[in-house]
Design brief:
about 300 residues
């Protein structure tokens, strides 16, 4: 009975997701008017959405958002990776539903093949897989965001070098920022270019958009850069030496992080090497031990 109920719930959930994907719900006029006047400030970074997952799990997204997901920290991680919060929640919901339904469907197939399986095992497996599928995207995003921030800091040190070299050539602070951002390639330089283009379009200072980008991506070095550049833009301070020192400090920090990661990887390799050595000793000692035991 439990198996039949679980299979029925899984089938109903799949049909409901297909129906919501095929026939999307339209918001009412009251909802459109309420959200029109309370839209947040546009993000400096670009955001990519998994439209297929969002379309399939559209009714579940308000429920997950009401529970406080994905959280401020995770939202910053998603901005670093240029992923949308709705797409992330949709992927979590899809993986959770797949993990919940897959063992139950497998049990149904085994039942059709007349292979007996206890009902408790698929149920527990379904709950564990659903929890793992729901949490796995968060773990992936945090790991990739940490690597993306490290890459961003490396690109930022090169950006600072380009800026102070351009300043040494006699360019102004805004021209130096635009020229330095136009030279580089990669995700970090693309985000810097978007921030500076947004400053030009909105007629705001470039350091204010850089500071906002640093807050959105949770990169303190970018906010410090914006504070240093604002001194040059508002008070006429010469920041060429300060930018060179910041670039050098960033490179030193990156080298220290790389050495720490290499040391941690070396320490993690100690256990497998030790187990391999013990296994090798076991193979060597096995014939002698066998001879001694047979002689007793």
């Amino acid at each position: 009975m439990i198996t039949v109920i679980c299979l029925a719930l899984g089938t109903a959930l799949g049909l409901w997701m297909l129906l919501t994907w095929a026939v999307p719900t339209q918001p009412s006029l009251r909802q459109r008017l309420s959200t029109a006047g309370s839209e947040p400030a546009a993000s400096v970074g670009n955001v990519m959405d998994a439209s297929w997952a969002v379309a399939m799990t559209r009714p579940l997204l308000p429920v997950l958002q009401a529970l406080g997901m994905p959280g401020k920290k995770l939202e910053r991680d998603l901005r670093v990776l240029e992923r949308g919060a709705d797409a992330h929640l949709a992927v979590k919901a899809v993986l959770g539903c797949v993990g919940l339904v897959a063992p139950l469907l497998l049990q149904g197939l085994l039942a059709l093949a007349e292979l007996p399986v206890d009902a408790e095992v698929p149920l527990v497996t379904a709950l564990l897989l659903a929890a793992a599928g729901f949490v796995a995207p968060d773990i992936e995003v945090r790991a990739k965001a940490a690597r993306a921030r490290a890459d961003f800091r490396g690109a930022l040190s090169a950006f600072l070098d380009l800026v102070w070299i351009t300043l040494a050539g006699g360019a102004g602070i805004e021209a130096a920022l635009l020229a330095a951002a136009a030279v580089g390639r990669g995700l970090a330089f693309a985000q810097l270019r978007r921030a500076l283009d947004a400053a030009q379009l909105t007629r705001t200072t470039p350091w204010s958009t850089l500071r906002r980008l640093g807050d959105e991506l949770d990169i303190a070095e970018l906010a410090e850069l914006a504070a240093s550049i604002s001194l040059a833009g508002t008070e006429g301070a010469k920041v060429r030496t300060s930018l060179a020192a910041k670039a050098k400090a960033l490179r030193t920090h990156l080298v220290a992080d790389a050495e720490a990661d290499a040391q941690a990887a070396t320490e993690r390799m100690a256990l497998p090497v030790t187990l391999l050595f013990l296994g090798f000793l076991g193979f060597i000692a096995y014939p002698a031990v066998t001879q001694v035991l047979n002689g007793l």
